Structures are given as structure tokens and as C-alpha cells.
Amino acid sequence: MTTEQPEHKTDVQLVTLTEVAEFAEVRRPTASNWRRRHPDFPRAVREEGQSALFDAAAVARWLDARPLPPAVLAAEADERLMTYGDVFRRGLELRSLGALRNTVRGDRLLAVALALAALRVLTAAPLTMDGLSEGIRRVAAEGRTAEAEALDRSLRDLPDGTQLLLKVVNDLVPSVGGGRAVERLLTQADRLGATNRQDATPETVCRLIAALMGSAAGLTVLDPAAGLGSLLLPLVEAVKPVGVQAADLDAAKVDLLRFRLICHGLKACVRRGNSLFDESSSVADVVVVDPPFTPFDRYTDNVPVTAELTPWAEAAVRFLRPEGRAYLLVPLPALRSARVRPGGLHPLGADGALRAVIQLPRRLHSFRVGVEFALLVYGNAPDGYRRPDDVLFCDADRFAATGADGWFSEVADWVRNPDDAPAEFTCWGEARGSLMPTDRLTGLRSATFQLARLREAQRAVHRFEPELADVPVEPMSRGYRTVGELFRVLPGHKANDKRIRKNDPTGLPVIGVAELTGVVPVGSRSIGTLDVSEAAQVTHPGDVVMLGGDKIRAMVDKAGGSIVLSPARVIRIPGFADYQQHPVDREGIARPHPGMTPRVLVALLMAPRNADRATGGLVRRVDLSRLELPRLETEEVVRLDEVLATFEARRRRAVEHLTAIDAVQAALVAGIADGALKVIVDSDGVSEEGS
User: Ranges for the DNA methylase adenine-specific domain (predicted)?
Assistant: First the structure.
């Protein structure tokens, strides 16, 4: 194995303050404080936009005068590192690897760098160019054939610049240890131009799975889609299983994962293969999957995300031993599937193996902040669950929003001891329909509870409005249908705010966020007929205008003829406008009732059970078409509409009553305060006369 020495350039190396912090292994504010508080800190060589560039050599010399704290010295394995300057130069050497990308492909550089680090760990001796082959033979002689073959593949036909890689690895591994060394080399993937970057499974997900697993003594762990081990590696280091298996379809990633595990001192059986169609006898006590790719091309095959993930759920269960557990990380939209299996089962239910669905807190990913995730827990046996087909639904997002520290530990306890799980954040159900915990946790209470609450409210109102207290009801159990199944959901229109007019009766009235949130009265804003697109449609009388954001807001457009502004939407009851205008046909025969009225629909949509339906990593929105409504008979809808109309009339009268009282009080106090009125007092008290 031979290589040519790279040419050493004499150009000045420039670094930003962010790179100073990175290479010196301090936080970014520390580097800023160095520059701001120390007049002798090197001046910027030049300014590029808002970034200042500094001479790396000058920064290193300045940092030589700053010794490392005792705690940092104790953690360093390399006794040669005494100052921040030493640490900075070590980091600077790593950046120098980026210069090689102009002559060697980034993926090849990364593979050689990680292979050299692994060989340095296995041989426990400095590497030389002439001794690489002998080192690989020593590894094979120790019985590590798979590792030796991977090293030979990666270190064959070495590219130019390997000598620089060798120097960096020989300095880095003894200095920080194999595990930290390989992680630092992996962080250089972007600078090297490598496409084999690490898949970033959030650290919180690894901690949650570790908490769910508990003690892993005597257990084996399998990751059938390991990639570079972003899920497997931290999990294995946390729970210390007795055996580790990993697989991936990408041969290059398999070798990189093997090198990474070697550097961390972990033994594992790593193989290349397509786990989705693997019929081998590989089984494990724990299976973890963060699918890095899908077996279908959604752009050409039009396959929804649920179908893409279903094979991973089936594979995870197939690899499980009896009493084992599998954990599958999926994007939240996969929990809502339009395609169901016989019996209405959700495709991700894995034929009854699903045990728990945990909706994870938002913004777990540092770079995919707009994507929400859920963790699915599978098991081949009920293991303490009430029935084999029972599924525990947990909204960890709602629980974490309460500010609870260590929420993943609490959630893990709920899954392990489901009978102790709080009803506020968990519920039981079957793997049918939507698996979204926010769709399941709708505040449903028993008929006995609801009836008792109604009776208590009726007793309270009886003192003032006896008629309102006389609404006969009885307990019953209902089915549900979604808004999308029952009605037409129409989008709102986008309009330039500059086109919206105020108090102009010549235009079309608009209903938008301001009207639905009560900022402006309905009818106070309008838009010219020439300012809307030809495709814009006005509302029909009786249309329901709805806004699904942090909470649901809805109103009835009784007159119609309005333009609804996005993000508000329109829910149209089929046939209601015609029924309202012509309740009987030409022959005097009553038309059939449409089965719903706008007043009843608004009341049901704004009921407490729909208060927490919103989802979305950045902006919370309610999927209106999936909101559920109870099945009501037409006669019950008509009677309920009459009752709600009575409530509205009495509420308006009560508001008028309170307004009149407030007006009298304000006028009396204002007159006295201005010295214009006097309250007449006689021997019997305050007179009704004034002056």
C-alpha cells in the first residue's frame, strides 16, 4: 500500500468564531467572551458579511496561554494536551481533512478515516502506511473475520492524502479514546462532502426506548435498518444488552457501522441485507427500527406513507422472540390511514401485535422541526395487558407541555404499568381507525358522569330559567362518523390584505381570522368583486365557517354571499340551503330534512371533546375532515336545534339585561363624579328620585 504525500500549502488558515469554539471544544458564547473581554485576542483578518475571519495560527498561540481546567484535564487521555491551544490545533487538523475533498470523493475519505480509527483501536498501537496490511492480518488471526474483511475493503487502493488521515487518527484516538474519535470523524462528513451522513434519530427517542426496556440483562437487541447506528448505538450503550445484531441494505453503511461499533468497544453481528424480505432465523428480545428508507417510490407508485411503513412493522414483529418487544419510530401522519384491513384494523396494527402508541413531543428533530413523530410498541404476548387486542394510547406531547421534567421516564412507567396510567394523557382502545392519540383522548366520560353533570347544571339554572332546566335526556351509546364523510369541506380563499376594505357596503363581506376570533365584528370588512379570482365562491345561507388552529372556532353564515378567507374553511351541509328556502315542494309535500342544522353542527364541533385535536410541529392545525360527530336521528337533530335556539334567545336577553344594568350604573357614577347629580336620601333610605 503506497500513497503520495499531499502538497502543503502556505496559505493562512482562516477560522470563524464558531469554528474557534468548535475546535477548542467550548460553547459559542465562550469564544465571543474571549474576543470581547480580552484586548489581546487576535484581530479579525477580514470581515465577510456578519462573520469575522481570524488567523488560525494566531488564535492557537493566544489559546496556548489559557490552561485547561482540571476537570477537562482529568477527562483527557492524552497527557500532551495542557492548554486550549493544544485542543484547538487538534480540531484544526480535523478541518484540514476537508482540503482532500477536491481530489478524493467524500464517501471514500470518510470510509478510510473510520477504517483507520477502527484499526487503530483494534491494534492498540500507532499505525504506519507499511503496517496496515499486517494490522488487518492480526485482526483476522484473532477470529474477527468480518471486521478484517471490512477493513481490507476500505483500506485497499488508498487515495492520495491518506498520510494526513493517518496522522490525524494516530493523534486523535489516544487523545480522546476510540469512541470520541470516531464521533469527531463522523462530524466531518459535511466538510468531506460525504453523502453517508449519520441519520439523526433524536436522543430523546433513544432515552425513551431505553426507559421502556428497563434492565436489558441477558437480552439481545436487533436493528434491522441500522444505518450508521444513530438509534442502535446510544441505546446499546445505555442498556448494555448481552447481544447486538444490526443490518442495513447499504453495504457502505454496514462497513461504517461496523467501524463505529469497534471504536466504541461494542461487539455486534452486523450484516448486509434487506430486512423487509429477510426470511432468515434472526430473532431478538428487542427490535428497534427508525426506517431510513421506504420500499416504494411514492412519487411514481402513489403509495401513502402508511403503506410504506407497514412492512417495517411486520418485519419488526417477525424478528421478535416470544415475550419480546419492538419499537418503531414513524411520522405522525402514518397513524391516520385511509386504507384499512379486514375488520377495520389499521395497517400498522400488525395483526394484533400493537401494544402502545406514544405521540412524541414536537420539535424533537433539530433540523426537521416541522415533522411530528410517534413511537409504536409491539409485542407477541399481552404481558399484563387487559386483552391481547388492547392498545394503550399516550399523548406524551401534551404531558411534556406541562413542563414535567424527565417525561420519558413517566411515560415508560405508564406503558409498563398501564393500570396506573393517568386518564388525562392515556386511554385504551383497539387498533382500528385512526391511531392518533390526540384523536382518542377526547375527554370522553361515562353516561352516568355526563347525566349527573347535566342534572347539576339544570338545578343551578332552574332558579332563573325554569324552562331551560326541563330538557329530557336519557343515557345511550352512539357511533361516530367524520365531518369529511358527512359534509363538504371547502377551502378558504387567499386575498391580499391591501384589498380588504373596512365599512364599505359596496363589496362582498369577508369572514376570516379576525371575524372568527372576535377582533372585528362580522360584516365590518369587505372586498371588491373585481379583487377576487374568478374561481372564488361565495358562501351559501347556512354554511358553517370554521377555523381550526390552537382551538376550534366556528360560526354560521346565515345570510350567505360572503368570501371566506384562508385559513378558515367552509363546511357545507348538503341540501340545507334548498331545504331552508323551500321546505315544501311545488305539490305542497314537505321535503326530507337534511339530517343536520348549522346551529347543531357548530355546537358539536366546539364541544370539549374536540378541544385538543390540533396537530403540527410548527403551526397547530385541526384536520376538519377527520373530526368526529355522533350519529343523530333526524328527529333528535330538530329537537336539539330548537333547544339550542332557545338557549341563544335567552342568552341574548340576559346580555341585554346586563348591558342595561351596566349602562345605568355607568350613568349614575359618571353624573355623581362630575358633580352634576346627587342621590336623595330620606328617612327610609335612598330615594328613587334624583336631581
Answer: 195-397
